[in-house]
Design brief:
Nucleoside Triphosphate Pyrophosphohydrolase, 4 helices, 7 strands, alpha+beta, 29% strand, globular, seven-stranded mixed sheet
Length: 147
């Protein structure tokens, strides 16, 4: 079984995603660029990206969040794993807390960011797998928002 903090699987794209939640129990999502050649163009998604050679999952998610929204968050907890069969992509999902206003977040990739309440997420143009991750872990996400 794959451990949450290391990757040993070959022939898979190794990625990490962050569910960032605020104290209002809202989840930060970013709107991906709408251009050909990228995964889920024009869709809402978690902050995240690829794991570099020799990098652990926790180190990768800290780096990706810092690179994409310029926040250093040190307290991430492993939440879940997604396997995108079509893309041979294995994604570790972490949860962290971020109490920032949307206008304070400096996105470096994508079209924009926004905090959403879980009920709003149901209606978004977003991967069903990502929605499933949110709703099967909703209690843990709400718990993180309260701590």
């Amino acid at each position: 079984m794959l451990k949450a903090n290391s990757y040993k699987m070959e022939n898979y794209k190794k990625s990490v995603n962050a569910i960032l939640v605020n104290s209002k129990k809202q989840i930060l999502l970013h709107l991906r660029d709408d251009k050909p050649g990228i995964l889920a163009p024009g869709c809402w998604a978690f902050i995240g990206g690829g794991v570099e050679e020799g990098e652990s999952g926790p180190d990768a998610i800290k780096r990706e969040v810092k690179e994409e929204i310029n926040y250093l968050i040190n307290d991430f907890q492993y939440l879940d794993k997604i396997y995108f069969r079509k893309y041979k992509m294995d994604v570790l999902v972490y949860i962290g807390k971020l109490d920032a206003r949307e206008d304070e977040i400096k996105l470096t990739e994508g079209q924009g960011v926004r905090f959403f309440y879980p009920d709003e997420i149901k209606k978004l143009k977003m991967s069903n797998l990502l929605k499933k991750i949110i709703f099967r872990n909703l209690e843990k996400i709400i718990f993180a928002a309260n701590n």
